[in-house]
Amino acid sequence: MLTLTRSEQSNPTGLNSEFEYRGEIFHINLAYDTVLSFYKLLDDKCFSDEEKVSIAFRMFFDDPTIHRYIDKNDDLKIRAFQEISRYINEDPYIHYDGQDQEVESNVASPKYYSFQQDAEAIYSSFYQQYGIDLLYQKQKMHWDQFKALFAGLGPDTYFMRIVRIRQEDISKLEGKAQQEMIEAQQHYALEDNQSQEAVQDQFADFGNMLMAIAKS
Fold it and tell me: Can you tell me the distance from the alpha carbon of 117 to that of 190, in angstroms, rounded to the nearest whole number?
C-alpha cells in the first residue's frame, strides 16, 4: 500500500511530502518547480524512455540513499508513479453531480494553457496578483500551494487574459473585432501537444512505459 501522507512531526506545514510503502516512510520532493520540470521531461525528445524514468525518480526522490532501494524495486517504482501522478493531477475544482457525471468549474481548462509555453505569463501573473517572485520560490513553494494560487489567478492577470483569448468563440464576433481576435488567437496559439491537457495524457504513456521497462 502506498499513499502520500502529511507528517506533522517532520513537516510542520502539514503539506504532503512523504509516502508510505509497506510500512516504510519515504520523503518525496513536491516543490512546484520539481513537478513542472517533470511535465517538461515528459515531452523531451532528447532522452530515451529508460533515461526519463531514471531522471523522473531522481527528481522526486532527492535522498541518494533511497535511489539504490528504488532501482531494485520495480513494484515501488510503479506504485510510486501511480500515486504521484494521481496526486499532482488531482483537481479540487472538479466534482460529481450525483450521477457520476464530471462537472467542471470556471477555473481555466487544461486544454487552454501550457505550464511550459505560458511560463512567462504565469510568472508575471503571480507577481501581479500576489507579489510573489516564483524564481525565489524554487524548491520552497509546495505543489499544493502553487496549485491553489494558480487556480486563484484573477481575470485581469496577464495569464487569464491569454486564456480568455484562446477560449473566445470568434463566430460570435463581426468585422474588426473578429479580425483582431483571430490575430490575437494566432499570436497566443498553443503549439501542438503543448496544452496541459495533452501533457496530462502523457502520464498514461509514461506509466505504460514504466511497466514495460519493469517487465523487460
Answer: 7
Which cell numbers hold the place of 109?
Answer: 481548462
**Taking the model in full, what pTM does it have?**
0.81
Q: Which three cell numbers stand for residue 158?
A: 496577464
Strand-strand pairing, 18-21 and 2-5 = antiparallel
Continuous segment of H or E residues that includes residue 133: none
Cell of 57: 525518480
How far apart, in whole angstroms, are the C-alpha atoms of residue 20 and residue 4? 7
**Phi, psi (deg, nearest 5) at residue 150:** -60, -45
Which CA distances in Å does 107 have to 104, 124, 131, 150, 188? 8, 18, 21, 9, 19
Angstrom distance (rounded) from CA 1 to CA 66:
18
Cβ atoms of residues 5 and 16 within 8 Å: yes
Distance CA 159, CA 140 (A): 22
Q: What is the DSSP letter of 189?
A: P
Alpha helices in 89-154 (DSSP H): 119-130, 143-151
User: Do 163 and 108 meet the contact criterion of CB atoms below 8 Å apart?
Assistant: yes
pLDDT for 13 beyond 70: no
pLDDT tens digits, one per residue of 155-164 = 999 999 999 9
In 10 A of CB 179, how many CB atoms? 12
Provide CB contacts within 8 A for 5, sequence distance 6+: 16, 18, 19, 20, 25
Cell numbers standing for residue 123? 510568472
